[in-house]
Amino acid sequence: MYFITPPKIAMAMHSRKIWWRIPGEGRKLYLSFDDGPVPEVTLPLLDILRDQGVKATFFCVGENVFNHYPVYQQLIEEGHRCGNHTYNHLNGWKTPTETYLGNTERCSRLVPSGLFRPPHGRIRPPQTRALLRQFHIIQWSVLSGDFDPRNSPEKCLKNCLDHLKAGNIFVFHDSLKAASTMLEVVPEFIREARKAGFDFSLIPEMPGVDPKPVNRHAEAG
Ligand SMILES: [Zn+2]
């Protein structure tokens, strides 16, 4: 069982570095894709995102990055951002903390990022405490439900369009299981959200921190 939007009790477990949505100005939404990269799915998704001019954040499974490194490199080259989703997609509730942290570290060696999303959203307090020294933990505002074969693409699209709210983080999956629904829904979702006056941004490397304006001339000089 899962919730389209997180239960209030989960959101109450907050910290300065655990994010269920991204605060800030403007009508920004945040697209995120978990569990890739998987060439058969991630590559067509990249075509969609390129066509639409949208950048997204990918929470990668280390093992998939290892097996499909050129796809990972392409993600980065095309301006998307990657976060850590452990090396073997471990369920924190069922994994001893030391194993969990070691597996996350193994992913870090391939995916250098300050963003972490726990697989299944399941993580225990000692794991959270340890990881917060190194990461911002990015949870979600809206689960599309693309991984659930009981959901039609129409239902999945509705799950998302019912929660168009500035700052919301949407979760899709670039996995084989979710592919057919996800690839159908994502372009439609982007079009509809834009019609409603929203646009899409990368989840910031340091959520909650306003980036300092960059003086490009000074940089170039
Ligand atoms: Zn996952």
Any overview of this molecule?
By secondary structure, the protein is an alpha/beta fold. The chain has a single domain (8-208), classed as TIM Barrel (Alpha-Beta Barrel). It contains 9 helices and 9 strands. It has helices spanning 8-12, 39-52, 62-67, 69-77, 97-110, 125-131, 153-161, 179-195, 216-220; strands at 18-19, 28-34, 57-60, 81-84, 115-116, 136-138, 142-143, 169-173, 199-201. Strands 2, 3, 4, 7, 8 and 9 form a 6-stranded parallel β-sheet that branches. Strands 1-6-5 form a 3-stranded parallel β-sheet, with no helix packed on it. Strand 2, helix 2 (39-52) and strand 3 (57-60) form a beta-alpha-beta unit. Helix 5 (97-110) packs parallel to helix 6 and helix 7 packs parallel to helix 8 (179-195). The longest helix is centred in the last third of the chain and has 17 residues, at 179-195. The radius of gyration is 17 Å and the shape is globular. The termini are far apart. The model is unreliable at 211-216 (pLDDT under 50). Bound molecules: zinc ion. Zinc ion (ZN) binds next to loops.
Structural descriptors:
single chain; 221 residues; alpha/beta; 9 strands; binds zinc ion
What number of structural domains do the residues give? 1
Q: What's the CATH topology name?
A: TIM Barrel
- The radius of gyration over CA amounts to 17 Å
The averaged pLDDT comes out at 91
**Helix percent band:** 25-40%
CATH superfamily: Glycoside hydrolase/deacetylase
- The geometry reads as globular
Total helical segments: 9
Quaternary state, please?
single chain
Order of helices and strands: HEEHEHHEHEHEEHEHEH
Low-confidence stretches: 211-216
CATH class: Alpha Beta
Q: Give me the secondary-structure category.
A: alpha/beta
